[in-house]
Amino acid sequence: MKTEKVSMGGCHRGSGKSRPAISRICAGVIAASLVGPAYSASLEEVVVTARKTAANTQDVSTSISAHSGEALTAQGIVDVKDLQNVTPGLIVNEMASYSMIFLRGIGSDSFQGPIDSSVATYLDGLYITYTSSQAQSLGVVESVNVMKGPQGTLYGRNAVGGAIVVETKKPSFQEPEVIASIEGGNYNMLKGKAHLAGPVSDTLALGISGLYMNRETYLTYTPDPSQKHKDYDDRGYKFAARWSPLDWLEVNGSHYQIRHTSADAVPLSNSDATPAFESVLTENDEPWETGVGTEVFTEMESTSSQISFDILSEWVNTKILFGHTEFFSNIFWDFDLSEEKVLIIEAVPNTAETDSLEIIFNSSERGPDWLSWIAGIYLEDTFKDQRTPLYVDAIAIARDITGIDLTAFNDLLDTLGLGVIGIQDTETVNAVLYGGVQTDAAAIFAEATFDVTDDISIRAGGRYSDETREITEAWVDARVQGLPLIGSTDFIRALDYPAQEKSWTDFNPSFGVDWRYNDSSMLYYSYTTGFKSGNWNGLNINSAPASIEPEEAESHEIGLKADWMDGDLRTNLALFTTTVENGHSQILSLASGGVTRLENASEYTVEGAEAEITYTGLIEGLRISFAGTWLKGEYEEFECTGFNPDTGLQEKADCSGNDTIRTPDFSGTLDIAYRFNVSRFEAEVGVGAYYNSGFWFNPRNNVEEEEYTKTNARASITDPETNLRLYAFGSNLNNAVSHMQKFRQDFGVGESYARPRMYGIGLEYKY
Fold first, then answer.
1. CATH code where residue 347 lies
2. Which domain does 710 fall in, by range?
3. Rounded to whole angstroms, how far apart are CA atoms 364 and 453?
4. For 11-67, how does the pLDDT look when each residue is reduced to its tens digit (9 = 90+)?
5. What is the pTM of this model?
């Protein structure tokens, strides 16, 4: 049988000379989480690939929250959105399937199809370029690592706020592995996972994984509760292969696909209609109730294919990774947020297609003990577009809805530049907005670690990026359709904007000093930077597409990672400050020039502190974990665009000195787990809580998320003789109200709600 060997994704040297904490650890295997349920009461060596080489998390001079796949399953974590409930400082919001991810208050609330997230997401080493699939379900994963702070040197593209790195299981050359589970829960939830992998020969290993999940939505359609919004439905698979024909060569290939349908984040409620439409629209601020039609939902499909070559040599190790990803989604959404169906907007479809190449060179064992290094190049070719139909429902108007004022709609059309069309009580206006953006990105990067003494190391690196974005097409088609609905006028090309192109270059340096003052403690200072290239506002009506300037982040962090009391106590502490120039801020408004528009905030700064504390020394089998993040974010000079809540009108306002969005003063988790034996069975029970002090959703600080606490619990019993594990979990057991999104726009304040109380029971088999 072939022995497991390590390449760029496996076991190389850590940094410089060998240390007991690092040794030559396999990068593909992540141990149990430091924050969340532990499957051993002791403090494990948690292995991460934060610098694209294997290292124990206690030896990496940056803040990382590491979660094993087993730990996430035990807590009922089903997708990236749920990670915020076990990772303080992380906020993952969703708007009609678009993900808005913030880490330590750094992120972007934009959700146009062609726009990028400010927190990068990686799946098996591939950068995910489209925000719409970043919160999809987690299948059979090995680990999820949340890397906090700018990651501009090694992870590069758009990692201004940090990176979420998801690693799925890959087949082993050693033994076959079988994982199968079935799970049921409230809202008629049924979930299944399967993973089969193992050696076919001494040089070839294959694997296949599958995921299925279906449950009813937790939303109630208020006008007619007997009608149901679409189910939450996920189904996906992954094929993987490892081939090692030579001692110095390993080839890994995989193909991954997931399909997702859901109404959870699409049917929003209008909790506070704007004055111009308060007599027209029905308000509803009851949690988990909606007024918009049952036909609003999102559906998406994403595929990812990759092949990598790990080449070991005496002087340098090389990894070559080719990736191809494709994505599409259809979003059916009611923009007025109410049952009257006055203005409906769709995104049919959003698409993205990416080809990428990354070549990484890494120091080998032949080099000097005092030096380790990594260098590489990255190339990407991405095209993303969005087609957005919008229309006023003719039937709703023809029924003479009480209090409706057609003047308001015509005023809006005038603002849009389509006033020449007008609206009569027997007509509806249709418009289709389109924007497509081509991205060509290239980067070179390098980082070196020098062991100055046995205890002190210095790290320095940098990344040079060159990105070009072209808005290839931007146009608006429009038509007027009369009643009765027998025929319609043809669409006419109302507006057609020429292609535009813009390029940006940037250099992102990094620097750090690590002092290991004993075998179990490290004090570090880290300076990191990040760059997110500019872009185009691709959905436009009354003005030509305008560009936005790049985001640039600079962060300083001082931290202490230490184990005490013979390893019973672990304390990871950090102080940090991050400044972002030209932060991307979104306006959701038809009157802003399109459905959504981005603008640059001049500068903002977020300061904070973090603590992760784990104690196992109280009684045998008991593990107590606390993690907390304290933040203070403030805009510098920022004339922001928003809506006046008294008039409902869009206007400019001075947001200087306001709190930055999605920046809670404090968020934290407390988890208590106890592992014990009952006869031959191994049992574990755990309880936990997540607290968020609340934050603002908009720079004007007039749309608020109030403080909330969510409690959870879990229990499992494992039979080591049959390899069966029976488990149960409950999340948000106190049914706390929080939001996936909340915003103010032309028609009022829209709200979509995060998951209420969820619970389930499952049976898992492992071999």
1. 2.40.170.20
2. 47-766
3. 20
4. 333 333 333 332 322 333 223 333 333 334 555 555 556 566 666 777 777 888 888
5. 0.88
